[in-house]
Write a structure and sequence with these properties.
- The chain is an alpha+beta fold and 158 residues long.
- The chain has helices spanning 2-10, 22-38, 41-47, 50-53, 71-94, 113-116, 125-134, and strands at 57-60, 63-66, 99-104, 122-123, 151-156.
- The chain contains 7 helices and 5 strands, in the order ααααββαβαβαβ.
- It has a 3-stranded antiparallel β-sheet with strand order 4-3-5. A two-stranded antiparallel sheet has the order 1-2.
């Protein structure tokens, strides 16, 4: 995970939320690296808590609207999970025979049928890693991880 984040940083590809305020931009890189090295997505979300690192309003369809109160949670969970999946892909590529499977990592109050259909799907580690590396800040082509879906990837026991 940490190596993948450092790769994005070295290539100036690290994704910064468009909702970040000046403080969010200033602390995100260091905070993300610390979270990936020593903490979890909950810690990352707490460090980025909305009023501290996110703008309170944004322009949407020409109107000023409030940024959702869960913006930091959505962003932290989504980005942490992306680096987690990228780390698992690298592990699988370095350990032949290792398989990766989609699973429900977090309960969703309104699970989408298309998300539910992905549970149990086996992923090709190289395809998934390439997808996640090339589609930073946007939804991956192969649909994982989906923001707010509660889905992630696990190593399948042999």
């Amino acid at each position: 995970m940490l190596e993948e984040a450092k790769l994005d940083i070295a290539e100036s590809l690290l994704y910064y939320s468009e909702r970040f305020n000046e403080r969010g931009h200033a602390i995100y890189e260091k905070t993300l690296l610390e979270a990936l090295a020593s903490h979890d997505e909950v810690w990352l979300e707490r460090q980025l808590f909305s009023p501290t690192c996110f703008n309170s309003t944004e322009l949407r369809a020409g109107k000023v609207v409030k940024v959702p109160s869960n913006a930091s949670t959505v962003f932290a969970q989504g980005e942490f999970n992306r680096f987690y999946v990228r780390g698992l892909c690298r592990f699988a590529l370095n350990n032949p025979g290792t398989r990766l499977r989609v699973y429900r990592a977090r309960q969703s109050s309104r699970a989408r049928p298309e998300s539910e259909a992905k549970i149990g799907t086996l992923l090709d580690p190289q395809t998934t890693l390439t997808d996640l590396r090339s589609r930073i800040g946007i939804n991956p082509e192969f649909g994982l991880p989906e923001v707010m879906s509660g889905l992630s990837v696990e190593i399948l026991d042999s």
